[in-house]
Fold:
Amino acid sequence: MAAIVLTALKITGIILVVILALVLALLALVLFVPFRYRAVCDKSDPQGDFAGQAKVTYLLHIISAGVIYDGEMSKYIRIFGIKLRPKKDKKTQKSKKHPKSPKEESTGYEEALENDYSIDWNDTDIKEADTDEEPSSKESFADKFDRIADGISSRYEEYKDKIDKLKKEVRFWDKMVHDERNRNAVSYVSVKALKLIKKISPKRIKGFAHFGFEDPATTGQVLVYLSMIYPVLPKKLKIEPSFTDTDIYGKVDIKGKIALISVAVPLLAVYFNKDCRRLWRLYKRHQNK
Structure:
């Protein structure tokens, strides 16, 4: 009897270990296997049309999804290369109402006139009804002054409330900015955000961009702005300014990958940080007031 119980416990333990291993393997796949993305924007020919596509793949292209634009927008989702098609909604066909013939419309109108619907078309009654209305009396100076004074008073109260709310907002944010723990929280979030952007940013950007404007001074200004960010521009992305034509064309190919672990770790770190949680509670409490 004891041997049977031990055997049953052993089998149950093996099953639990296998289930736990499968769960951990699935969790590892979700967290550590990256989603690969690629986007291509193409207008290489100055006289040609714009075309582009963006796609995301996962697990060696076992799962893929994307958007293609070539004059028309199209979307797709594939699993093991098989395209999933969305189910079409079955629309019930509504019966169309046949327009009435002129004869039917005329008979309906004639029936309405025959029934009379208690309409009295006597001209004398209409004239008497018009003469019964009394002319509106002119507004006195005192009434006009009271109306203007009431309007000024209501406007003053409205603006006073807005100014009081603005003062409260300024005082609140002044305290928030000068609080040391809040500054530590903002600094912590900034560091984590920069690391996250670095991890999920594209690994490759290549192509070229040609541009020109009617006014050469505008082209020069754009070059000045681009020179400010030139050190961070990808080396394989060529900028081709032109002072002789006004064509704008080019082709850009962006490729990268994102692993969920790279996103989950900084988000959890920010969530469990005491200063960040305190800052969030203060903000929510202020919003609920």
Summary: The longest strand covers residues 249-258. The two ends are 68 Å apart (CA to CA). Helices lie at 2-32, 102-115, 123-132, 141-178, 180-200, 216-228, 260-272, 274-288.
